[in-house]
Design goal:
Multidrug-efflux Transporter Regulator, Chain: A, Domain 2; 10 helices; two-stranded antiparallel sheet; two-stranded antiparallel ribbon; 4 strands; mainly alpha
């Protein structure tokens, strides 16, 4: 099979096919007496597997999976796949936790810091919430809070939005939510700008996880087919 034929079949350029070969994503092609590459069904199956893996696991992991499979390190490839499945499972768990937090956030009102004085120092905010400054610093290290610093003194200054985030973090901690989950909730709330926008973001996140899961199913079939072709080629 000519390089151009293989490339067209997968919507790639001939240079991309050569790059994948050089990277070990697909096996090295045999050369004709005139030096031209001769690709086979093995290469076609390899490219089909790789292009299916990318939307399922991303470019970097897909590259590692294919390099391991192509060079005969199947266990290593399966470890990368297992890690991708585990990551998807963790993301689903985080999504469920964030969705479970929404009723508590809504109960706190659209602006949990309404009517409060700002800016606060770390000590003032700690007293306002009835917690220690060390707790606020721990929440900041986890990414749940993002206070600004006074450019002259370097001290933390908690503005109204920061006070809102701190009060919501306090609310969610009382509900036994993990700091990592709280950081995700508040980060997405800051990005979305409102609870309504956050709810829409979570729905988009759910669709993305579903797409990733179905892509992993599809990639598994393509990769299995590639393994079969590799096995037949090795036995012939």
């Amino acid at each position: 099979m000519r390089p151009v034929d293989l490339a067209r079949r997968h919507g790639l350029s001939t240079q991309a096919v050569r790059n994948y070969e050089e990277a070990g994503i697909i096996p090295a092609a045999r050369r004709s007496r005139t030096g031209y590459r001769d690709y086979t069904a093995v290469h076609a199956a390899g490219l089909a597997a790789y292009t299916a893996l990318v939307p399922a696991f991303g470019h970097a992991t897909s590259r590692r999976i294919m390099q391991a499979v192509t060079s005969g390190r199947l266990d290593e490839a399966l470890e990368h796949i297992d890690a991708g499945h585990a990551l998807l499972s963790r993301d689903r768990g985080t999504l469920r936790a964030v969705e479970a937090s929404l009723p508590r956030l809504k109960a706190a009102g659209p602006d949990a810091a309404a009517g409060t004085r700002a800016p606060y120092s770390i000590g003032e905010l700690a007293r306002h919430l009835g917690i220690s400054p060390a707790t606020l610093r721990a929440w900041e290290r986890a990414g749940a809070l993002t206070p600004r610093r006074d450019p002259r003194t370097g001290h933390r200054r908690y503005l109204a939005a920061d006070v809102r985030d701190a009060e919501l973090a306090h609310l969610l901690r009382r509900g036994s939510q993990a700091l990592g989950t709280i950081a995700t909730v508040l980060g997405r709330l800051r990005d979305a700008g409102s609870l309504e926008a956050l709810a829409r973001t979570l729905e988009e996140w759910r669709h993305g996880l579903t797409s990733r899961g179905t892509a992993q199913l599809h990639a598994a079939g393509r990769l299995s087919a590639y393994l079969d072709v590799l096995g037949r080629s090795a036995g012939s």
